[in-house]
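Hi, here's the filled form for the chain we discussed.

Project: internal
Contact: R.S.
Residues: 167
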Amino acid sequence: MCAEHVRSQAGFDAPRCADMIVQDLWTAKGLELIGHEVKVSRSDWLAELRDPGKAGAFRPYLHRWYLVVSDRSIVQGDLPDGWGLMALSGGKLRVVRPAPLRVPEPMPATMTAALLRAVAKTAERRAKDGPRHPGCLPDARAVTPPVSEPEGPERAHCTSGNRGPQR
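And the returned structure, exactly as it came back:
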């Protein structure tokens, strides 16, 4: 199950937004909650690196955190410790570097509410338009290693519509 554009807290003034969070629904795989940040250019990635608080708002509450890129050359030896890397290869999204498994802290209620709202909005949009992100498939196994089924990632923005400002 996936949620696109997940705010760091409920309400319109959330200071951060994750591109996608996926809940693995398989007990055998640990029911992992996995975050994804999608980048399609080197400059976009460098901007992310200058603002470590964006990922820092989510990572403590997730089992894994991935950078998802359209081209491996976007990352040039500057992937932070604790991040995994997924990249397009041969038209498929593949795990380049597995994200290390963490023991997450309990998620604050306001973030849980924001996540649940994003799940509902993503499901509603998917029913109308189809999946936007590679992890938004019928089950979350598509974004836990190994990844081989989905087509390329699209750039996700958290500043459109009523999603509030991205800071």
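Let me know if anything looks off before we file it.
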